[in-house]
TrEMBL record:
<dbReference type="InterPro" id="IPR036291">
    <property type="entry name" value="NAD(P)-bd_dom_sf"/>
</dbReference>
<dbReference type="Pfam" id="PF00106">
    <property type="entry name" value="adh_short"/>
</dbReference>
<comment type="similarity">
    <text>Belongs to the short-chain dehydrogenases/reductases (SDR) family.</text>
</comment>
<keyword id="KW-0560">Oxidoreductase</keyword>
<keyword id="KW-1133">Transmembrane helix</keyword>
<dbReference type="InterPro" id="IPR020904">
    <property type="entry name" value="Sc_DH/Rdtase_CS"/>
</dbReference>
<keyword id="KW-0472">Membrane</keyword>
<dbReference type="InterPro" id="IPR002347">
    <property type="entry name" value="SDR_fam"/>
</dbReference>
<dbReference type="GO" id="GO:0016491">
    <property type="term" value="F:oxidoreductase activity"/>
</dbReference>
<dbReference type="InterPro" id="IPR053011">
    <property type="entry name" value="SDR_family_member_7"/>
</dbReference>
<feature type="transmembrane region" description="Helical">
    <location>
        <begin position="283"/>
        <end position="304"/>
    </location>
</feature>
<keyword id="KW-0812">Transmembrane</keyword>
<protein>
    <recommendedName>
        <fullName>Dehydrogenase/reductase SDR family member 7</fullName>
    </recommendedName>
</protein>
Length: 327
């Protein structure tokens, strides 16, 4: 009898371990995020919050707007293409809880630093507060490291780093005064490791991680939360507007659903909204094998670098495009 009970407990433990391993293999986010999805707050916890999303005219920012609109957040949608922002606004209102005046379309160029303070004033005039700033606008890159013109480095740092820092500095005094605020930043897997054929992009995302880790410490005194979001390959317009090695040339390629194993934009936005609702510090959003790589880089960097060199540039480049690293 004793033996039987013991085996039952053992079988239960083995079953739990198998289920957990299966879930780990099937995961499309880090463990904390997966836990929050199952047991944590849902995006509707953000209902009524005023959320400003940059880069809301396409891709991850667009789908995050849909998630947050459904959750009942009031939104400010920013990017350069106003017609696309109006399209996103219409879609947000359709069938959801928001009314016309709950969404402000606010054209903004992240590289035009001098316009950022005025933009903040317009938002405060309309909503009287900003609860969450989602720094999502950004462009990637496909280029060989040694061929990149320094002007490309300059423009990418202006967009992916300095624009983000400048806009955040324009918003922070308001949040400090309110003693409450949440800054979300769309970083990247490239903010955690070296992404091949994206030297400048990797530099910008590492820089952004550093800037906001420092703010996490300083901002804590003012009850400011920081969420760094690191997605792996996700379907969006990213490759169409990618920088290359020259400022006069865009990469201009579409993503190909038939060959690329990227996460859907909707799923990435769903997980991002969960990370926001639970105020998680940093989340990784990706399927394997990229997710496994981030774990290796985080906990066993020496080993991960060794594997990276062994796998070789071609396979790594395919991996980062979500092509499984075969051939
Ligand atoms: P998209 O190209 O679909 O979206 C980029 C957004 O940034 C657009 O709304 C674009 O709007 C905006 N943007 C570009 N330049 C400027 C500018 N100068 N001023 C203001 N807004 C600008 O790509 P994603 O949705 O994929 O990219 C969103 C974020 O996600 C980026 O920061 C990217 O680095 C990050 N990311 C994406 C991954 C992916 O695989 N897709 C993986 C990891 C991170 P407009 O052109 O109208 O100005």
């Amino acid at each position: 009898m004793d033996f039987g009970l013991c085996s039952l407990v053992e079988y239960a433990i083995i079953a739990i371990i198998i289920v957990q391993i299966y879930r780990l293999i099937k995961a499309d986010g880090d463990l904390t995020l997966m836990w929050a999805e199952k047991f944590g707050s849902k995006p509707c916890a953000l209902s009524g919050d005023v959320v400003w999303i940059t880069g809301a005219s396409s891709g991850i920012g667009e789908y995050l707007a849909y998630e947050l609109a459904a959750a009942g957040c009031k939104l400010i949608l920013s990017a350069r293409r106003v017609d696309e922002l109006e399209r996103v606004k219409k879609q947000c209102i359709m069938g959801g809880p928001l009314r016309e005046e709950d969404i402000l379309v606010l054209p903004l160029d992240m590289r035009e630093f001098s316009t950022h303070k005025d933009a903040v004033d317009i938002v405060l005039k309309h909503f009287n507060r900003i609860d969450v700033l989602v720094n999502n606008a950004g462009r990637s890159q496909r280029a060989q490291w040694d061929k990149i013109e320094i002007e490309v480095d300059r423009q990418m740092f202006e967009l992916n780093v300095l624009g983000v820092v400048n806009l955040t500095r324009a918003v922070l005094p308001h949040m400090y005064e309110k003693k409450k605020g949440h800054i979300v930043v769309t970083s990247s897997v490239a903010g955690k490791l070296g992404a091949p054929m994206s030297g400048t992009y990797t530099g910008t995302k590492h820089a952004i991680q550093g800037y906001f880790e420092a703010l996490r410490v300083e901002g804590a005194e003012h009850q400011i939360d920081i969420t760094l979001v690191c997605p792996g390959p996700v379907f969006s317009e990213l490759l169409q507007h990618c920088y290359t090695d020259s400022k006069d040339k865009e990469f201009g390629q579409d993503m190909d659903p038939s060959t690329e194993n990227r996460m859907t934009t909707a799923r990435c936005a769903e997980l991002m909204a969960i990370a926001m609702a639970n105020k998680l510090d940093e989340v990784w959003i990706s399927t394997h094998p990229v997710l496994l790589f981030i774990y290796l880089f985080q906990y066993f960097p020496w080993f991960a670098r060794k594997i990276g060199k062994r796998i070789g540039l071609k396979r790594l480049a395919k991996l980062r495009e979500g092509r499984g690293g075969a051939k």
